[in-house]
Amino acid sequence: MITNKIKQFYRLFGQDENHALRNFQRYFPEPYTLNEITHDTAEDFVSHNEVANQALLIGVEIGKAVAFQKRQVLLNAKYSTKMGTFAQKKIGHLPQEQLCLALLDAQLNVIGWETVFVGTVSHVQASPREIFQRVLKANAVGFMIVHNHPSGYVMPSKADIVFSQRLATLGQQMDIHLFDSFVVTHSDYWSMSEKKQLKKLSRSNQG
């Protein structure tokens, strides 16, 4: 795979990919040797093809840096009060409905906050497919969803509850847990987990 990527790299520079690959392999016969490169080796390698080889080594360094990056922990969402307050500050004041996704790790840390949909003053059209795609892409253990009510009325509508229960059901089938579904306004929040609205679904499904 690395060999093909190296060839593709030089091909994009309009160069003889096979010749460039042979030169590359003289200096880096095994992939792990890129982790052990010395200053002298790097200078000698670059001298054969200054622009392309320098660009390649910069790309390698960027790849190493990215590999060690982790998602930032925004807060711990173990307690709904803390999560509800956080969500209020994020979207409770907005004039349009938004549906946001809180991505969670195994310790219920929020490792991602993403706006999935933006709707009208009173409606947002949401797709479970889009939500679960984002959860899987982040390799999250579970998630919470949050949407705002610009009207200031914090109680969820029947459609809000049905949609949240649908996500809970799909999550159970995929082993991706929906921990809570929030509605927020500028002054309040509503937790469906607190109100046992998601647990009711779980019991009914098992029956």
From TrEMBL:
It holds the Pfam family RadC. Keywords: Hydrolase, Metal-binding, Metalloprotease, Protease, Zinc. InterPro entries: MPN, RadC_JAB, UPF0758, UPF0758_CS. GO terms for biological process: proteolysis. Residues 73-198 form the MPN domain. GO terms for molecular function: metal ion binding; metallopeptidase activity. Coiled coil: none annotated. It comes from the Bacteria. Belongs to the UPF0758 family. This is DNA repair protein. It comes from Leuconostoc pseudomesenteroides.
